[in-house]
Give the backbone structure.
Amino acid sequence: MNKALAIFLILAGLVAIAHSADIAIAVSNDAGDLTFTPQIAKGKVGDNFIFTWNGPKMHSIVQSDEAKSCVKSAKQVIASGGPAAKGKTMTFPAKEVGKMWYFCGVPGHCDAGMYGTLIVEAADGAAPPAGGAPAGPGGATPSEGTPPAAGSGMPSGSPMPSGDGAASPSGSPTSGAPGAAATGSASRNYNSLFTSGLVFSSMCLAAAYML
């Protein structure tokens, strides 16, 4: 009985390490460009998409119903809950195969090309359905992050605008410019494997003790 349990724990640890990864998505950059990088991020069920706010401007994440859309969806599975400043992070766990689309709800930012796509594949590598299915019903988990700047007029809980309006005069190229969109998969950040390795080692020690 003890040996069977030990084998189960070891296999479970190996599966968790093999299939879990953190996929980093940068919300803008130090130059203040109106971009999500990569613009198209790919992951697998069990991965985490981690958004990190950068640059001098406020940004938000609002879900839409189709690619490059600046219209807020009735479903807000992935949303930041309002504009935020540099330093905020938000984790979205990929729980289901499918596609999701989002944009920055700060006026003018989406019109300037600040929108993105999440593509979640099955752990075995199967592609998502063409129509796009929810990539995870659990919703995003924002961190405490940096609160909205005083006088921004956009408190954290306020409804997101659709993106209509003039783009911010940053003078920098945006993700909507030709050739500027990132179309590759997000780099899979395996720093989290260190923690997984510690967990796995602990399980092995526990299994050895039980034997």
Remarks:
- The CA atoms of residues 111 and 163 lie 6 Å apart.
- Residues 22-189 form a domain with the Immunoglobulin-like fold (CATH 2.60.40.420).
